[in-house]
Design brief:
The chain has helices spanning about 5-15, 240-260, 310-315, and strands at about 30-40, 45-50, 60-65, 70-75, 80, 80-85, 90, 105-110, 115-120, 125, 130-145, 145-160, 170-180, 190-195, 200-205, 210-220, 230-240, 275, 285-290, 290-300, 320, 335-340, 345-350. It has about 375 residues and is mostly beta strands.
Amino acid sequence: MKHPGYIFILLLFLSSCVSEFVPKTTEDKEILVVEGLITDQPGVNTIKLSKSLPLGTRSTANPVTGCTVKITDDLGNSFDLTETNNGTYVTDATGFQGVVGRFYTLHINTNGANNITYVSYPTEMKSVPAIDSIYYEKTIIDKTNGITTAEGCNVYLDTHDPTNQCKYYRWEYSETWEIHLPYLVTNRICWLSGSSDEINIKSTSALEEARIVKFPINYISNETDRLSVKYSMLVNQYSLNEDEYDYWEKLQNFSELVGSLYDMIPSSVPSNIYCVDDPTVTVLGYFSVSASSSKRIFIDENFKGVYNPYTSDYCVADTIYNGDSIPNLNTTVWIIATSTFPPPPFVVTTYVKGCADCTVRGTATEPDYWDDGKKKH
């Protein structure tokens, strides 16, 4: 039998072998990060400015406030941006709209004690074709005795450019889905929203025809309740030049290789922005200039095995009969069901507010476009 002391020393040795790995780097501790996109669509265009943090820092980047930001074009026009939130600068919705064929340049002046000027290289807004179609296919996740018990959904996109001019594409999407609480409470039906968090790009430069077929935009698993009632996705398609495509491709490869190890874009990913005062200073991010087209899809079909976050085991705390007082008066409870027939009368309570009010997760206001799809379940 081993002595307990040996076991303790072994455990101490094993635990000491686990430590956080922070790669050595010569990059500056604080680097300007630019996130910006202008399109040919009406509305507000946004530029976000922040300072990156050192590798291994588990915090979000710091916004850069108080800057003078403007966009100029190759015709000599200048458009000032206004800071709305810390580090967020927007164009005038009625005063600026990108035009295909023009070249745009971003100008940033940090002001303050360290007055530093940054400028982007002039970038042409290239035309983009319309999205031909967006469609989905069910996928079988699990079977039991030959019977499908769990299903997911792949969303695909087709597009092509009849002029064969647009050869580099990027896609983003916003998603909305409807949820129903299983209880007859006031806020029973809600809508939740999300947006893409992956890089979706494709090049047709090596093809004879600028045509993309069955490009996978998103996979929806049964581990969420997105497919429980009705789901919608709005896909935005952007035109890219070759340099920007190279930027997104390197960023995509980097994120896939290291995951969340780094909390900042590496300097090996090229930017189209430079520091006028000192061209050796690293700038992260990209000023994107893209024409845009969009298309929406609705999915209103029954999917098997979809996750239900509102099971009775999770939601129901107690059932109280005959008007008895609610127990645990020091704990907040909500009523999720009441009944006076058949007798005896009772109420069902929960300790989870979200089981009695779906606005904990979403909004009870139906989106304007919601009736454009198939009818609800």
